[in-house]
Amino acid sequence: MTRRTLRTFTAATALCLSAALVACSPGTTEEEPAAPAGDGTIDPAEFEGKTLEYVYFTDGPDEEATRELIADFEEETGATVELSIVPFDGLEQTLQSRISGGNSPDVARVANWRPYEDVLIDMTGYFGEDYPDQFIEGIAAGALGADGGMLAVPSDQTMNGPLVNVEAFEKAGVELPTAEDPWDWESMIADLEKVQQANDMEFAFAIDKSGHRISTVLNQFGTGFFNADGEVALDDAKAAEALGLLDELMQSGAASKDFWLEQGSRYAGANEIFLAEEVPLYLSGNWQVGLFAEAAEFEWAAVPNPCGENCGGFPGGKYMVAFEDGPEPELAAYFVEWMNRTENQEKLDQLASWLPTRNDLVESGIEYPNRGEDMSVFLADVAETPEDAYATAAHPGFDEAATVLIEEFDKTVAGQQDVGTTVSSLHATLDELAAR
């Protein structure tokens, strides 16, 4: 069934409903699972005995949590969900190969949905034009296709932010920041240098080698790659100030210059520096919470991001998509919607230590059973992060721009070019990407 056919069916069913609700609608009984509000095409009672394939990559504890939620879905609908685990590095190749071979799965978890845009189900065709409004505006905007249809559902998000060695701060007599009294960059660096000296640590500051992570700093200095309209939004002066600060930290030895330059243009995490207690603060993100709960041999905590012109961090995340050429498109669409209802997304977030994408869950908060205070810090920064940061993260050219940022900034750190040249090269790349 093509996307066009799905939309036609939706419209026809809606017209039928207005004329004769009971006679024409698929309907449900009190014993059947209720169809979602706004649905005009799906009758969950028809899913009994059907099978759906969910192609999935795991970040760790989320697999067990996902299986638990799938069991709930199977009990409610009578359908069977086959979870096909694939490595993240091979996900796109696997999906593209299956799509081109006429063997599309029903549903997949992806980090980037755009390579499959032409074969994805528009969720608004099933769940109404206002369905995207259930999700954080910036994230939802990043799930819309060229014609405005919602081709992916944001299922979980990440938020960049700092983690600190609490014991090191206590030894130095330096107070940690709070949401009510956050650091700015100047006060943060001053405090970190005090903690470094008091604990005889090698460095004051660590950050992953990642254009995504550097985008956190750009955001806090009031700039980023793109705006919500897909236009270039980089303020060269603000970008130069942010990158100049990071370069100064590395040139002075406050951050590890060797770590940065030895990695080439590849991503590299600085978590080992933090776990070795060589640095009091590590700028990474909420996905480290589960790892550090197991691996850290000292007291640590998440703290709010420093504020500049903006507060907050920088977002990332994953999506669930349903394929229109899969064996069970209606079941696929229903499963994606069901997994991301308020109560189900909340349960999965609690079990997997994920951050929510739904407006109602961001507003209400989530009670996490493990390291709840740390997860709440990251969740609070979701609301502090400006919309343009979400627009940048969702732009189809973000990954390429982030790679160029790393490559050009490497030249600055290595003393091969000044910050102004790095920013100019980045801006030229952004212009090219926006013009595509």
From TrEMBL:
Protein's name in the database: Sugar ABC transporter substrate-binding protein
Transmembrane portions of the chain: none
Domain of life: Bacteria
Keywords linked to the UniProt accession: Cell membrane, Lipoprotein, Membrane, Palmitate, Signal
InterPro entries: Bact_solute-bd_prot1, SBP
Stretch forming the signal peptide: 1-23
Claim: Transmembrane is one of the keywords in the record: no
